[in-house]
Amino acid sequence: AQSVTQLGSHVSVSEGALVLLRCNYSSSVPPYLFWYVQYPNQGLQLLLKYTTGATLVKGINGFEAEFKKSETSFHLTKPSAHMSDAAEYFCAVTTTGTASKLTFGTGTRLQVTL
Amino acid sequence: DAGVIQSPRHEVTEMGQEVTLRCKPISGHDYLFWYRQTMMRGLELLIYFNNNVPIDDSGMPEDRFSAKMPNASFSTLKIQPSEPRDSAVYFCASSLSRGGYTFGSGTRLTVV
């Protein structure tokens, strides 16, 4: 079975500071990994995904994530936080193709302060 | 493209009543998923369809829940009878075979 663990249910950073949201996965076969963002009262929006190929993946809004097989990690980063980045972020995994059912982490709420 | 459209956005109903949630996926997408989101349990996959056929309904909590997809442009999730513990935000998502999910804005269900 596949699973993801998001370390830290709440993360607070200052505007302009580095954003680092952690995600570790468990899978017996090569995973496909995703990050989604959810703004209040909205659905989830795809930020970026890793399927195969380059392990550093760039997404929307300046976010990127690196797939590290040796560490079973897929951490999300952004060099400089903006107030508009405040939202909940979900890591997700699937192993049978990008359309198959995703298993989501419990989410990390990002707070950005002045 | 209007994206995945869910209706209603909010639903308040009394315990024991039937509730029907609706979803219109993105045209051309061949997968449709129903998720439930609560504070306690996070995001849970309830059921998903491929080409209108239910593939996996193992996440449907009990017989009170049912889902249908009569055609490629419409799906429903029905709860009968509803209970207060069904209160949650229900999301529909659609995707292509090799694409990521596109989520709707959700239906916030409150059962009193």
Task: Explain how this protein is built.
- The complex is a heterodimer of chains A (114) and B (112).
- Chain A contains no helices and 11 strands.
- Chain A is globular, with a radius of gyration of 13 Å.
- With 114 residues, chain A is mainly β.
- Chain A is 0% helix and 54% strand.
- In chain A, a hairpin with a 5-residue loop joins β6 and β7.
- In chain A, strands 2, 4, 5, 9, 10 and 11 form a 6-stranded mixed beta sheet that branches. In chain A, strands 1-3-8-7-6 form a 5-stranded antiparallel beta sheet, with no helix packed on it.
- Chain B is mostly beta strands and 112 residues long.
- In chain B, a hairpin with a 6-residue loop joins β9 and β10.
- At the A-B interface, β5 and β10 of A face β5, β9 and β10 of B.
Question: What are the main properties of this structure?
Answer:
heterodimer, A: 114 residues, mainly beta, six-stranded mixed sheet, five-stranded antiparallel sheet, 54% strand, B: 112 residues, seven-stranded mixed sheet, four-stranded antiparallel sheet, 11 strands, 0% helix, 55% strand, globular
Task: Describe the secondary-structure layout.
The complex is a heterodimer of chains A (114) and B (112).
Chain A: E1 3-7, E2 10-14, E3 19-26, E4 32-38, E5 44-50, E6 56-58, E7 64-68, E8 73-78, E9 87-94, E10 103-104, E11 108-113
Chain B: E1 5-7, E2 10-13, E3 19-24, E4 31-38, E5 42-50, E6 53-56, E7 65-71, E8 74-79, E9 88-95, E10 102-103, E11 107-111
Parallel strand pairs in B: 2-11
Antiparallel strand pairs in B: 1-3, 3-8, 4-5, 4-9, 5-6, 7-8, 9-10, 9-11
Largest sheet, strands/sense/barrel of chain B: 7 strands, mixed
Pick out the low-confidence regions of chain A.
Answer: none
Largest interface: A-B, 20 and 23 residues
How many runs of DSSP E, i.e. beta strands of chain B? 11
The number of helical elements of chain B comes to 0
Largest sheet of chain A: 6 strands, mixed
The rough form of chain B would be described as globular
Name the beta content range of chain A. Answer: over 45%
- Structural class of chain A comes to mainly beta
CA-based shape of chain A: globular
Strand-residue proportion of chain B: over 45%
Radius of gyration of chain B: 13 Å
Q: What is the helix tally of chain A?
A: 0
Residues in helices of chain B, as a percent range: under 10%
Write down the overall mean pLDDT of chain B: 93
The count of strands of chain A amounts to 11
- Measured between the Cα atoms of the first and last residue of chain A, the distance is 41 Å
Q: How does the helix and strand content of chain B classify structurally?
A: mainly beta
SSE arrangement of chain B, N to C: EEEEEEEEEEE
